[in-house]
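Let us work through a complete example step by step.
Step 1: write down the sequence.
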Amino acid sequence: MRKQVFGRKFKRDANERKALLKGLMTDLVLKESIQTTEEKAKAIKGQVEKLVTKAKRKGEHAESLLQPYLSVAAYRKVINDLSKRFADRPGGYTRIVKLGQRFGDNAKMAIIEWVDKTSAVVPVVEKKVKAVKVVAPKKTVAKKPAAKPVKKAVKKASK
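Step 2: predict the structure and record it as tokens.
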């Protein structure tokens, strides 16, 4: 029975799981939209929203609170950019858009992005196609008709 067990394990030990979540959250902050599995997106959604709320409330003093969860460039962006962008929003800073299933292992894929992202266009997932070598047709140059060889008249010696 799972009593008082919270969170997802992702078949990783604690250090690997922390590193995975830190990398995903850092990428989300820096790139503002990432494509990952649906379970990983759901796992980081709550944590990222709590970090933005901390940055909003503490302002410039939130650095020490964000350091364990994000890289240096990412927590600076949260403090300087995202906290000001979401200043008037009470919560719900991210959205998860479901994409379907991954071709290789049939995992459910999703995009997690910020709500106020300027382009709210859902990208189309394209299947990978084997590279096909395209051969350009040979250029045909009109050739001049070859001149007929001139036969030299050979005089037969008459005997």
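Step 3: interpret the result. The chain is about 35% helix and 15% strand.
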